[in-house]
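Let's practice the habit of predicting before peeking. Look at the sequence and jot down your guess about where helices and strands might fall. Then scroll down.
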Amino acid sequence: MPDINIHSLKALAIFKTLFEAGSASQAARTLGITQSGVSRSLSQLEQNLGLELFLREKNRLVATPEARELYEEILRLMGNIEELRHSVLALKEFGTSRLRIAAIPGLAFGFVPRLIATLLEDNRGFSISFDMMSSHEVLREVESGHADIGFVTLPVSSRVLRVEEWLTTQARCLVPRQHPLSGRDEVSITDLRDQFLVIGNQPNVGADPLLHLATAHGIHIAGKTEANIGAITSLVANGVGISVMNPITATDQLVGRDEVVVLPFTPSIDFSFGLVYREDWKHARALEFIRASGRDLLREYPA
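Done guessing? Here is the structure:
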């Protein structure tokens, strides 16, 4: 078996430059060593590996198929070394080089991806896993250790997790731009009488806050379309109906679209979001960064 040591690693670096330069003289100039030093290093490397890497033809070096494959392996090795370097930097900066995040759909279409981008902006060594799931599933993933931190809809309770409230915000009404209600300063529950609604699909439709509010006020609706939260704004934009949504999700999903008018809604429907993590993460520097950067991002959203 070939002996790979610090000397052969230096020879591999010289070989890489030689392969890219195409000649020993050019490689020598690039490396700042003599041409004979390049040739001697190549000869020792071929002897150590038991491979012929270049054919000598009329004072020219022609790379063999083995040389091309070795060059590709060296590029992969260098990529791994660079990744290791970034990981070490992330460890020094945040105490971890891996972060597993779970988040509810309402924050997964813009807020959390923007937060991840902020984290990676100067810390490319981070390895990040990001999953979107319900609040109940987020709790389960963080409790089991399959996720490090989670973003949830409040209230939630857990005997093993820390729960931080991040914000409570009031729902906004999403109205198709061509709808008669789009010219209002605000929309009230009574304005939804005999209107078509778009609501989130969930196991218990009766738990939908908009339907619950309509029932409490004796408001008859013409019909409803249930959809994944990621499709609600698109359905409203296409004139399917009116919806009520937290402004974080609405803002993220309506970037670059003008087919929907977002209006205040009364009476208020509150949406609360929070962060959950295990006890052993309470002093993690990565968590401190997430907390600070996340709160800065939230200031960019409607109050």
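How did you do? The first strand starts at residue 54 and ends at 57.
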